[in-house]
Structures are given as C-alpha cells and as structure tokens.
Amino acid sequence: MKALAGYLAGLLFGLGLAISGMTDPARVIGFLDVAGDWDPTLVFVLGGAVITTFIGYRLVWRRQTPLFESRFQQPTRRDLYTRLLGGAALFGIGWGLSGYCPGPAVASLPGLSWPLAAFLVAMIAGWWLSRRIRPSQ
C-alpha cells in the first residue's frame, strides 16, 4: 500500500505539473525574467501548492501516526551549513538556466528533447556524485 500511495501521489503531482503548464521550461524562465517579459503563471501554481500543503498538514498532524508508517519522520537538523547552501545555489542556477527542476523534468519525459536529456543527465550525474562525495547517513 505504501508503494501504491507513492505512485498515486507522483501521478497526481505529474498531472498537476502537466495541466498547469509547468513542464514547459519557457514558462519557468518567463517567471524568472522579472525585468523582461514576465510570466506570472508560476505564482498561481506555487500559491495553489502552498494552500494545499497548509490544509494537508493541518489534517495530517491531527493523526497519531501516518497511514503507512509507525511514526512521522521529521528532519532533526535545523542549522544552515555550507553543503545545504551550496546545493540550494546549484539547484537555483540549474533551474534558472534550464527552466527545469526534477519533478517537471520527469513529467516531461514523454516529450523528450535534447535540452531535457542534457538536464536529466546532469541531474543524475549530480545525484551520483553527491552520493560518492558523502554517502547519506
């Protein structure tokens, strides 16, 4: 059931990205181009996500345990550190240059193009490299 719930959540996320047009990197780049031909579409997508998350968390935290786990898993580290800031900066630079982040890139796979393929190769290489530099704890 846990895997099925994950697949259904991923499917819903991918459909939302496709319906909202966020699989089109030109929309994301248009949103980031505040000094040029600005496209505000992403604001509405992000606003919808914030509202959904706000309501969802209020409902989830009323439960004693999650549906498919014995306890909630929350991050314990709360400080800002170099690897976190560096990773966030690399993510932002890659997002701004390509118009893709991992979710929309995977949702865009049916319309695979050379820029998308290059992004996916770079994303997988970065993931692989990060695992080799410092394995997860």
Automatic annotation (TrEMBL):
Organism of this sequence: Chromohalobacter marismortui
Transmembrane helix is among the record's keywords: yes
UniProt keyword Membrane present: yes
Pfam short name (any one): DUF6691
Source organism superkingdom: Bacteria
InterPro entries: DUF6691 (IPR046513)
Protein name: Sulphur transport domain-containing protein
Transmembrane regions listed in the UniProt entry: 42-60, 80-100, 112-130
Assigned keywords, A-Z: Membrane, Transmembrane, Transmembrane helix
